[in-house]
Please model this.
Amino acid sequence: MYDIKKNFDRIKAFAKNILSTELPESENLLRQGPKPKFTDLDVITLALTGECLEINSENRLFKAINSDYPNSFPCILSRRQFNDRRKALIKLVDKVRVLLLRELDDGKNMFIVDATPIRICKLSRAKRCKFRAKANEIRPDAGYCATQKENYFGYKGNAICNTNGVVQVFELSPASVHDVNFLDNIGIVLQDCTLIGDKGYVSQTRKELFLKESNIDIQAEPRKNQKNKLPFKFKRIRKRIETLFSQLNDQFCLQKNFAKTHRGLWTRITTKLSACTLLQYFNKINNKPIGELKYALSKFNM
Model:
């Protein structure tokens, strides 16, 4: 296992620099009452450090800190306090990712869209599932994953990345909603670009509408029975988002769900995406291939 304390300090210095305009000198957000000794910046850093080191479980992370680093984190929170404060600070965690997007711009007006299942539980356990979502939050439901040919209960993660595999947009939708519906509001985020998708994004109506309103050219892989189809020349580029999903599943355990609420699930997903983008940035500034995330921390020199 990597040195948690060493990487915590490295990531904290970087996060402090990038969030300098968001956090006051105390490294805590403005709030009533005494300022905690384990600062808000420490909470953000610990969340990112755990994901970067492939420690998917908070229980495992805190056990490792308490047993191997008993004197390195003198003001460490309890696991419950850490989870509560991380949820409250999730916008700042995501801010790290958003601020890095400009640095990771590939200079091409070309993006890739795809969806991946976010499982809450197996479909057979759906009626007993105690996962909670508030009235204003998206509720999970039953869906079908055509790639893996299985039914599941949960959400669908809709992502847009650039040609280097850097996530630009990530949203959740009910598992039963068709992939193409995700595009309905995408004109707010993207303009004047090419958007590449698989067969699930074939829609002549949307293609014409987006081209007219936002100058977004949707290039979707044609279906086998589609009439008047043209050759699809973006197969290799489209594979990049599939590689990204594989990395999120294998290295960041996107499919392992320990959350019991929608807010908790979104907090975990956002932290994983921010950690992934952080490792991609470390590779870039060290002149390493952006997509080689497995050893990004070991090769990182600040």
Q: What stands out?
A: The chain has a mean pLDDT of 90. Residues 4-88 form one domain. The chain is about 35% helix and 15% strand.
